[in-house]
Amino acid sequence: MTQDRDAYRKKREAELEQLEAELQRLQGKAKEAEAEARIGFQQQAYELQEKRDQVRERLRELSEAGTDAWDKTREGLEEALTDLRTALEVASTRFK
Fold it and tell me: Is the alpha carbon torsion for 47, 52, 55, 61 positive or negative?
């Protein structure tokens, strides 16, 4: 059971790394954009970073969760990842 949890946590950490790379790519594109678009992205980037921080916090909580709290903590992590993925998709379509 512990191996399954570790594998799950590592998979989600790897996914977070991929999402962070996408965020960095978008930040690079925003720097190339015109001033108005850059300002809009700055607000969006702040929101994305907050969502990323929420995922990091949920991963930390998952690492510390006991058997009883693990499922609920995992659900919170999945929700935070979904929020981050969705926000990145929206931002990505804006800066293509």
Answer: negative
Residue extents of the structural domains in the chain = 2-94
The Cα–Cα gap between 70 and 58 comes to 11
Question: For the CA atoms of 8, 10, 11, 15, what is the dihedral angle to 10 degrees?
Answer: 140
Q: Which one, of 77, 43, 46, 39, lies nearest residue 61 by Cα?
A: 77
pLDDT tens for each residue of 38-88: 777 788 888 999 999 999 999 999 989 888 888 899 999 999 999 999 999
Burial label, 6 (beta-carbon count in 10 A; 0-12, 13-18, 19+): exposed
Q: Is the pTM of this model over 0.85?
A: no
Which amino acid, residue 58? R
Spatial distance between the Cα atoms of 84 and 2, rounded to a whole number of angstroms:
27
Tell me which residue of 74, 79, 81, 90 sits closest to 4, measured CA to CA. 74
| Over residues 25-50, mean pLDDT | 81
